[in-house]
Specification:
Elements: H1 2-14, H2 29-46, H3 56-73, H4 77-100, E1 105-107, H5 111-115, H6 122-126, E2 130-132, E3 146-147, E4 152-153, H7 155-184
Parallel strand pairs: 1-2
Antiparallel strand pairs: 3-4
Helix pairs in contact: 1-7, 2-3, 3-7, 4-7
């Protein structure tokens, strides 16, 4: 879940917004703490430590909830509605592929084999909702097929991450607009 944060920062920089004021707000730190915890979880998986993997769905929801602080503080109501629609769409897409594949989410690792994120026995060790995808997978295009080497995402996951991107980018935008108004006065 670090990708939407990095993309929002890069996109904001490209658009000419200053990033530094974001870190002067206390409201960003719950998001950043969860992002760091997420990176720690990914490092644990790289090291074959699957102790906390059973809690990832709970962690994922708590991480998304931290963005509510930004929504409330910066009055990002429209952004929150758009982002929430993306979460709903992403969840529906994920649920479709899970339902079609007997309650399991097929995963198609490619780059992750090379980076060591996925090993040949990973799915046997973890025993969660994810299974190795195969030729009999239904709705393969909705399964976890987007492999970035440290995470394998579905189209639904990308939609859900869109929420984080929209909220963070618009937070940066609002902070910059407020700073401009203060600088003019």
């Amino acid at each position: 879940m670090i990708e939407p944060i990095l993309l929002a920062l890069i996109f904001a920089k490209i658009k000419g917004y200053k990033i530094k004021p974001l870190f002067k707000s206390w409201a960003i730190y719950p998001v950043l703490i969860f992002a760091i915890l997420y990176v720690i979880l990914e490092v644990m998986i790289f090291n074959n430590n699957y102790t906390f993997i059973k809690y990832t769905s709970i962690f994922h929801y708590l991480y998304l909830l931290t963005f509510i602080i930004l929504v409330i503080k910066y009055k990002l109501n429209i952004s929150a509605i758009i982002g929430s629609i993306l979460i709903i769409i992403g969840s529906i897409l994920n649920n479709i592929v899970i339902a079609a594949n007997n309650g399991k989410m097929p995963v198609f690792p490619t780059l992750s084999y090379l980076t060591g994120y996925v090993k040949s026995d990973s799915f046997m060790k973890v025993k969660d909702i994810h299974i190795l995808g195969s030729g009999v997978t239904k709705f393969k295009f909705l399964a976890d097929i987007i492999d970035v080497g440290y995470c394998i995402m579905s189209i639904g996951d990308i939609c859900i991450r869109g929420f984080a991107f929209i909220i963070l980018f618009n937070t940066i935008k609002i902070i910059n607009q407020r700073k401009e108004i203060l600088d003019i006065k």
